[in-house]
Specification:
With 317 residues, this protein is of the alpha+beta class. The chain folds into three domains: 77 residues; 87 residues, T-fold, CATH 1.10.3980.10; 118 residues, ApbE-like domains (T-fold, Roll). It starts with 10 loop residues before the first strand and ends in a 9-residue tail after the last strand. Bound molecules: adenosine-5'-diphosphate and magnesium ion (MG). The site of magnesium ion has 6 residues, from helix 6.
């Protein structure tokens, strides 16, 4: 008789690749390499599917259709996209508009790909915010349609899409029986289960002022941690650093904070809130996070000071 000893030999298998314009590291625990590869392929196809739905670069995507029809007519979309927009609007309400899925018309003003040579004109900045406003997104639940009321309005999932994709990939793999893994979307980390030796997955929070040094290593089981930082996409004018997270109320990039890490049960919420805290600032941000159950945050300001929500204690030695 043959007894399988497979469960004794479970191992993590990892692949790194570019998806949604970002680096993804996908780790799954499996019995052998071919099983591991199969699972990783599944995760990749799920993330690619979501990218097609929410991409603003692909002018055929449902998201682009919504934008092309701003001020013209409602667009019927998949229920999945409809619900994502619905949740994004809920986060706008939760953050008093610090997070706004209709931020995207401001992207015409601020560019973080090195193409900007001068500070945008005050007038242009003001004009760009006039098109921003989640209250002008009209959802029709019965028909699954989305209508952007104003011409020139645009939605974009830059601050929530990677987290959503990571959640969906994780859910799919769990349904397929994958016992444990990590989906890391450029620092948007989503884990489930434990390492094969029974220990928790460890998540390193990088120190933004010294990227080679993690300043805290924390265990996480079945949850997400997302870090938004000002150290990757930014421009500098007259010695001031302008980051890619923009205050929808002013049109100006958020200042003062260098990085925000948010812990939450889902990466989607963590992703959106990390962006929001940047805009809300340290005090308002921490107060708001303290009011949300099962959500915590760590903020580092531009001088390197560390602030945390009530239930986080870190040893920074
Ligand atoms: P990263 O993509 O670097 O992890 P974030 O998750 O914080 O960073 O998302 C930042 C992106 O979100 C920006 O590049 C932009 O596309 C979009 N964005 C900027 N400001 C806002 C805002 N106030 N609300 C919603 N999305 C925003
Ligand atoms: Mg985010």
């Amino acid at each position: 008789m043959f007894f399988s000893t497979n469960t004794m030999s479970q191992q993590p298998y990892k692949r790194t690749l570019k998806l949604m314009g970002s680096r993804f590291d996908i780790t799954v625990v499996a019995n052998n390499e071919s099983e591991g590869n199969e699972y990783i392929d599944l995760a990749i196809s799920e993330i690619t599917r979501i990218e097609k739905l929410i991409s603003s670069w692909n002018n055929q995507s449902q998201t682009s259709l919504i934008n092309q029809n701003a001020g013209i007519k409602p667009v019927k979309v998949d229920h999945e996209l409809f619900s994502l927009i619905e949740r994004a609007i809920a986060i706008s309400n939760l953050t008093d508009g610090a997070f706004d899925v209709s931020y995207a018309s401001m992207d015409k003003i601020w560019k973080f790909d090195g193409s900007m040579t001068t500070m945008p004109a005050e007038e242009a900045i003001k004009a760009s915010v006039s098109k921003v406003g989640f209250k002008n997104i009209i959802l029709d639940k019965e028909n699954n349609t989305v209508f952007l009321k104003q011409k020139g309005m645009k939605i974009g999932f830059g601050a929530i899409g990677k987290g959503y994709a990571a959640d969906k990939a994780k859910t799919l793999l769990m349904q397929k029986g994958v016992v444990s893994g990590i989906i890391n979307a450029s620092g948007d980390m989503n884990t489930w289960g434990k390492q094969p030796d029974g220990s928790d997955w460890q998540v390193a929070i990088t120190n933004p002022l010294n990227k080679n040094k993690a300043f805290a290593i924390l265990p996480i089981t079945d949850g997400a941690v997302v870090t938004s930082g000002d150290y990757e996409k930014y421009v500098t004018f007259n010695g001031t650093k302008y980051t890619h997270i923009i205050d929808p109320r002013t049109g100006y990039p958020a200042t003062g904070i260098t990085s925000v890490s948010v812990f939450a049960p889902k990466a989607e919420l963590a992703d959106a809130l990390a962006t929001s805290v940047f805009v809300m600032g340290i005090e308002t941000g921490i107060n708001r996070i303290n009011q949300i159950p099962k959500v915590e945050c760590i903020i580092i300001d531009e001088k390197g000071n560390i602030f945390t929500s009530d239930n986080i204690k870190i040893d920074t030695k």
